[in-house]
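cache lookup: miss for this entity combination. No prior model stored, computing from scratch. Input as submitted by user K.M.:
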Amino acid sequence: MAIRTEPFILNMGPQHPSTHGVFRMRVTLDGEVVVDVEPVVGYLHRGIEKLAETRTYTQNIPFTDRLDYLASMTNNLAYVLAVEKLAGIEVPERAEYLRIVIAEMMRISSHLMAVGFFLNDLGAMMTPVLYMWREREKLLDLFEMVCGQRLTYNYMRIGGVSHDIPEEFLPALKRFVAEMPGFLDEYDQLLAQNEIVLARSKGVGVLPEDTAINIAASGPVLRASGVKWDVRRADPYSIYDRFDFDIPVGSAGDCYDRYWVRVQEMRQSVRILEQAIPQLPAGEVCAEVPQLLRPPVGEVYGRIEAPKGELGFYLVSDNSIAPYRFRIRPPTLINLTALRDMVIGWKVADLIITFGSIDVCLGEIDR
Amino acid sequence: MTVALNGEEIAKKIAEAFPDSVASADKAAVIVTSQSLYQVAEFLKNTPGLDFDYLNDLTAVDYLDYLEVVYHLTSLKHNHSLVLRTRCYDREEPVLPSVVRVWRAADYQEREVYDLMGITFEGHPNLKRLLLWEGFVGHPLRRGYL
């Protein structure tokens, strides 16, 4: 007699350690095999887009910290670049360099968390994460030197940055840049050829190239699927056209490739830092910008390559002191569209690591 | 550098294929009628030379007289971009065709616009609120809400 099975529905989250925040998945299972999955989001919705319509352009900068809080200053950067494009503001050279330095440090910091927690999801409980945190801690110390904060920095300003760097910053950053490749080699030794990591993540959660483009995946998720697309190169903003760096691209589009692409991107970020530090010019760090900025009537879509993908700000101005419309394009929400395609037919444990390999941040998804 | 294509030239191409589909156009954007939105979306994606395969961003703006939905498109192949818009003059029951079958990237973003701006997308496979809970009354991103 054949054994009769029937699918059942399992609610994972919103309170669940593997969901990286308040995220819920309605998973339909047949035994241990995933038949269907439906992400349910919105538990952290704070209505930032609505709130921003009643605040001035400058007052909106701290809101952007609360999007992807693992890469706060990159969000600041995306927003201020969009406002500068809208209002036609020139940024001093030194500020441009400081922004790039900070953005690349932020990318390393965010990728360290992504890689560390990906391994956590694989079952390597906390040990790899603590290695990653060792380095991230140094970055947080550097951020604290710059602006006194460790999580929500509010460092970028329209027209530049809020403070110049203190004198102890550059020596500490140079030390970090010199050490980091060694640490990355260490991770590679421990993890990249580790049999369990390979067995669990190779070929799991595959996202084909055409699907990745069709769902508008971005960042490491898109590049792991073999698409050589990086906004820093495709549509250079700020001063990225002055630096020499490669775009790591995966081939299989599986969880391992997404992990691998992030590790390689950290190496490229170190390369950018190595080039930027000696070129850092002297001078002002912020342009003269009116406190109550009134950009001309119009609209702008500004986008940057944030650690998690293409972060866009669509702003509409009616020449008043507050934006008429303030729209955030959240990269991880859109990357999440691919989750269902990637996990159907795989086991629950694979669902966890595939979700981890997308590297979501709920602050940004829910806004 | 991503090249922003001239809206007027693209509008000519669209009008050749679908007469009466273009409402207006300027350098920055093409505005199409809501009835022809789906055909235009397919045309932009599948026409060689245009190949808009990547929908960056889909959002809506409330301009009081009408609701406008904005599509930011990019072609990864040619590295050029275009802004496409369409307008809903019926504020009570705004309806637009869904473009999910052209770009699946629209899936969550159309749900978000439905949730916060109250525009129904016909043909969307799973149109329900995204960020707010089922049973929530109103659409907070409308200008008249609070």
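stored under new cache key. Residues 3-93 of chain B form a domain with the Beta Polymerase; domain 2 fold (CATH 3.30.460.80).
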